[in-house]
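Appendix B. One record, verbatim.
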Amino acid sequence: MTEQLRIVVVAPDLAADGDAHAALQAERSRALRIGLLENGFNLVATLPGDMFLGERLAQLQPDLVIVDAESEARDALEHVVMATREAPRPIVMFTNDEDTRHVKDALAAGVTAYIVTGLAPQRIRPILEVALARFAHEQALRTELAQARTALHERKTIDRAKGLLMQRQGLTEQQAYERLRRAAMDRGLRLAEVAQRMLDAADLLG
């Protein structure tokens, strides 16, 4: 359930210094956090987007990261992207800047959803649910692509090992395949692992 998600908000440190723009941003940030709590979400922390963000996220292990900043705040976004590179998480960015030139860059950097204005509490839940669904879909596509690449690499490795057996032992392709398959079964290894070991040994022996 979305209510059980561990959410971290990344927001600039907006200390009250008499600056009207900073005060407005601080109020937006406060409204966002209140909206999350009113919707029953588990807000575990509000963090600055600095060089220590990766370490803090590793400790907190959030399920979703919300970036609350003007789109000009590239440093904060870059820190978030770097911090989630090894452990990808959905990233939702809220901003008041209506300059859409930044949207493509933000999405390319890894932002799952880029939301311009509109922090009404009733909008928060559907926004986060859509972001989570999109992130899950993208992760599934990445996994599928990685599996396809691995399968292709393994198939090429097996073909090379069969070719080596055919060349050096005068076997047919089917006989070479059966030799590899039996070796894999005897050793409790995958076919591609046996093929790679054979190629490594052949390279070593010359």
